[in-house]
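Let's inspect one such protein example.
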Amino acid sequence: MPEKEILLTAEGLKKLEDELDYMKNVRRKEVADRIKTAIGFGDISENSEYDDAKNEQAFLEGRIAALEKDLRHVRLIDANDITIDQVGVGTTVRLKDLDYGDEIEYTLVGSPEANPMQGRISNESPVGKALIGRHTGDSVEVEVPAGILRYEVLDIRR
């Protein structure tokens, strides 16, 4: 099965590359130092500091492997290719909640860049999927765990 393409903006790509660099060049050394110190405490069979450090090492190596895998499958979204005639990755969309009248704004990004608390939603999220390809003036219904959300697309921009 082919690997899933990871859509990223230039900013998102830099963030992932920076995280990978930090994990490999800073965190690896810190964890190795923790393991070395824990071994110095003696018997590792009952050494909780050693166990914690080894668990942290396993988590760290898993994160490094995941980042490296994602970076192999990145498709960079070129800001010059982003059009505002329809909603797509890299666009910011202003919506009107048709049930409550509130206006909200989302920027559609690839999943590694998503941060709903900052208004950055994944193109793979239910709302993101429903918005892709929509135009100003379109209405959209989105089924989410809490029920049905109904929006009108008010504005699309970069």
User: Anything to note?
Assistant: The first helix runs from residue 10 to 40. The chain is about 40% helix and 25% strand. Residues 79-157 form a domain with the Chitinase A; domain 3 fold (CATH 3.10.50.30). The radius of gyration is 21 Å.
